[in-house]
Structures are given as structure tokens and as C-alpha cells.
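Q: Hi! First time doing this. I have a protein sequence and I read that you can turn it into a structure. Is that right? Here it is:
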Amino acid sequence: MRAKAAMPSEERTNIARDDSDSWESWHRRYGHLGFTGLEKLYKENLVEGLTIDENSMPLTQCEACIQAKQARRAYPKEAED
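A: Yes, that's right. Below is the predicted 3D structure, encoded as C-alpha cells:
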């Protein structure tokens, strides 16, 4: 039986990471739910696995939410001369 030399494989290192996420990431995951709603879910332990990094700052400005709240003026029914 003839055997070929095996190619050396890449070395890999695994590290542990904290599963806590920021307020912003949970805000996006829950469809841009407001801070008050997220805070209620977190403090009352209403969602299993909802862990928030205590060092992260609560969300103040979300670009997508700001854009979604913008309103557009209606077009005039007749053109102005």
C-alpha cells in the first residue's frame, strides 16, 4: 500500500466570546423597537436569551428610524404658474 504525504493543515484557534449584545443590535433585531420596549423586555426577563452588554449605551439616534419618520408633502393637484 502506498500512502501520500498529508498536506499540513491550517492551525486554528478558538476563543470564547461574550454573547451579550448592544442595545443597538437588539433594536435592529426587533424591527427597530424603541428603547422603552427593549428595556421592558430586558428588565422583566420577557425574552429568553436577551442579554445586553451593560457597558453599551442605550440607543439615542438610529438613522433608519429617523428616515422612516420623515414625511413628504403632498403634490399639488394643479400646477402653479
